[in-house]
C-alpha cells in the first residue's frame, strides 16, 4: 500500500502566488493545483490519495498553538490574501472527489496535525508533498517528504543533505532552537544554524535544561510544544475522533465523467485536451487499488 498525502493548503498557496505573480488576467491557480496533483500521482502511483486542509470543522475556534504563543503564532499572515487564495476551495474539493481523492480536515488544529495522524496510522509507504520543513519530523523508514521546490524526496538516507547536517533525531530540537519565521515563531536570541548545531552536539550528553539558560530553556520548551506534531492531534479529546470519523466515511467514489464536465464548464482546456492522459493516470490508480484489495495488503 502506498499513500500520497498532499499538504493541500501549502499547494494552494504555491499555485495561487505563481498564478498571481506570473500570469496576467485569468486566475489559473485551480488548474495549476490540479495539474500538480496529477504530476504527484504519476510520480508515486499511490493506491490512496489524501488532501489535508487547514479549514477547521469547529469554527470559530482556537488551539494551544495560539494560546502557547500568546497569540503571536501565524500573526504575520494576511487575512485578505487568505480569502482570495481560498475562494475556490469548494470547487477544488469537488474536483478532487471526482478523482477519488479524500479531503480531510482538522477539528480545531491544522493540516500538519492531520498529516501527522495519517502518517502514524496508515500502513505501508507514505509520501507527503509539502515545502513545509516542519513536516520533516515525520520522516522515517516508511514516511518520506517530497519537497516540490527542491524537486527532491527527503528520506532517512539523505536527510542530513537537505537539513544542512541536522540529524533526524535532533530535527525537532533544532526547529525549537532556531524558530520558524514563516509561522512567526521566535527562536533563541542570536542563535543561528551553526550555534544550533553546537547546542545539539551538547544535547547528546546533557539535559537541555543544563545547557540552556533559564530564558533560553523557556523559549525552547514552548517552541517544542508548538512544533511537536505527535502532541497536537492528541491534545484535545475531540481531535483524533474527528479524523477517525472522516476516515470511516471511506474514499470518495471516483467519477471522471463529472470531472471532465466540470473542467469543460470552467474552461480548463489543457485538461480536456489531454483527457486520455488524465484517464490513464487515475484509471491506473483504480487498478492498483483492486490489486491491493485482492492481496489484502
List the helices and strands and how they pair.
Blueprint: E1 2-7, H1 8-22, H2 29-44, E2 48-52, H3 64-68, H4 79-85, H5 89-98, E3 102-104, H6 111-121, E4 125-129, E5 143-147, E6 152-154, H7 168-178, E7 179-180, E8 185-186, H8 193-203, H9 208-211, H10 214-227, H11 229-235, H12 239-248, H13 256-265, H14 269-273, H15 275-295
Parallel strand pairs: 1-2, 1-4, 2-3, 4-5
Antiparallel strand pairs: 5-6, 7-8
Structural write-up:
It is a single chain. Helix content is 53%, strand content 10%. With 297 residues, the protein is α/β, with parallel strands linked by helices. The chain has a six-stranded mixed β-sheet with strand order 3-2-1-4-5-6, sandwiched between helices. It has a two-stranded antiparallel ribbon with strand order 7-8. β7 and β8 (185-186) form a beta hairpin. The longest helix has 21 residues, at 275-295. The mean pLDDT is 92.
Characteristic key phrases:
15 helices, alpha/beta, two-stranded antiparallel ribbon, 297 residues, 8 strands, six-stranded mixed β-sheet
Task: Summarize this structure briefly.
This protein is of the alpha/beta class. It is built from 15 helices and 8 strands.
Amino acid at each position: 500500500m502506498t499513500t500520497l498525502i498532499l499538504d493541500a493548503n501549502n499547494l494552494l498557496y504555491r499555485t495561487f502566488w505563481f498564478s498571481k505573480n506570473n500570469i496576467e488576467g485569468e486566475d489559473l491557480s485551480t488548474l495549476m493545483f490540479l495539474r500538480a496533483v496529477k504530476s504527484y500521482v504519476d510520480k508515486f502511483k499511490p493506491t490512496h490519495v489524501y488532501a489535508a486542509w487547514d479549514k477547521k470543522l469547529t469554527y470559530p475556534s482556537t488551539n494551544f498553538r495560539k494560546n502557547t504563543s500568546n497569540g503571536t503564532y501565524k500573526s504575520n499572515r494576511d487575512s485578505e490574501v487568505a480569502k482570495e487564495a481560498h475562494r475556490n476551495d469548494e470547487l477544488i474539493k469537488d474536483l478532487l472527489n471526482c478523482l477519488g481523492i479524500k479531503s480531510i480536515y482538522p477539528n480545531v488544529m491544522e493540516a500538519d496535525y492531520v498529516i501527522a495522524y495519517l502518517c502514524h496510522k496508515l500502513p505501508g509507504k507514505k509520501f507527503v508533498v509539502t515545502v513545509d520543513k516542519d513536516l520533516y519530523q515525520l520522516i522515517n523508514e516508511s514516511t518520506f517528504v517530497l519537497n516540490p521546490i527542491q524537486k527532491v524526496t527527503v528520506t532517512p538516507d539523505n536527510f542530513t543533505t537537505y537539513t544542512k547536517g541536522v540529524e533526524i533525531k535532533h530535527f525537532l530540537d533544532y526547529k525549537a532552537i532556531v524558530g520558524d519565521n514563516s509561522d512567526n515563531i521566535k527562536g533563541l536570541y542570536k542563535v543561528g544554524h551553526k550555534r544550533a548545531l553546537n547546542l545539539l552536539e551538547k544535547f547528546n550528553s546533557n539535559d537541555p535544561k543544563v545547557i540552556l539558560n533559564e530564558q533560553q530553556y523557556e523559549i525552547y520548551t514552548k517552541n517544542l510544544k508548538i512544533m511537536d506534531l505527535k502532541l497536537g492531534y492528541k491534545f484535545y479529546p475531540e481531535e483524533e475522533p474527528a479524523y477517525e470519523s472522516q476516515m470511516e466515511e471511506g474514499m470518495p467514489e471516483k467519477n471522471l465523467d463529472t470531472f471532465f464536465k466540470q473542467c469543460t464548464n470552467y474552461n480548463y482546456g489543457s485538461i480536456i485536451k489531454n483527457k486520455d492522459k488524465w484517464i490513464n493516470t487515475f484509471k491506473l490508480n483504480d487498478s492498483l487499488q483492486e490489486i491491493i484489495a485482492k492481496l489484502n495488503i
